[in-house]
Amino acid sequence: MKQKPEEKRMAPERFTGKNLKDVRYEDLMKLNRKQLMALFAGLDAPSMSEMRGEYRAALLDSGHIINRFLARMYLHFTWGDWQHKAFEPLGETRGHGYNTFITTQSKLYENFFLAFLMKLANIVISLFRLNNPQRMARIMLNKTSMVSSVFDGRLSFQLSYRDYNTFFTSTMTDEVRKVNDRLFLGIGRLTITLGRFNPMPFVLIGPPDPWVGPDIPYPRE
Questions:
Q1: What is the pLDDT of residues 73-93, one digit of tens each?
Q2: CATH 2.40.128.580 applies to domain 25-208
């Protein structure tokens, strides 16, 4: 979904009726996908150095009902309930990160298809267990960098999943821009669901928790 020229740099205050410093998560939840994309075009990218730690994450309006179904399947059912996106800068222009999920599985596979099958098996097994303890899984690694946005050509903080993940997570790319010091607007896209023509907005909420690191260490970088 590419913005019309007149929408590219609209004043962000137009969408919430507030100064950016006063915008809260609840304000973004009231916006539809078209409004969120227009707001994104009016924001600036955060610096690499300020994106550090585990930020609470939540989906925003993704438009079509099929997108909402895929998001629930992808971010809540298969691995567990999505909790955070985490970042660690490795320099001025690059870094890395991961996602966190609440799960009852003792081992969580990053491959989507295997994780989906294990989730179904775990549901069956849980029927015969009285206690299903939850834990935080830190998986789904990514590389972060500063890039020109595919949506409007302006600078964005990007998360690329290509190098660390299998299909179809490997087709995912996120862009993030700063609303204020405690709120960031992200736009996710999957190549297999039409990429930039079918954006899926999300929000990151600070202040962040400390960086912990992924369950499986990064390959040598």
A1: 777 777 889 999 999 999 999
A2: yes
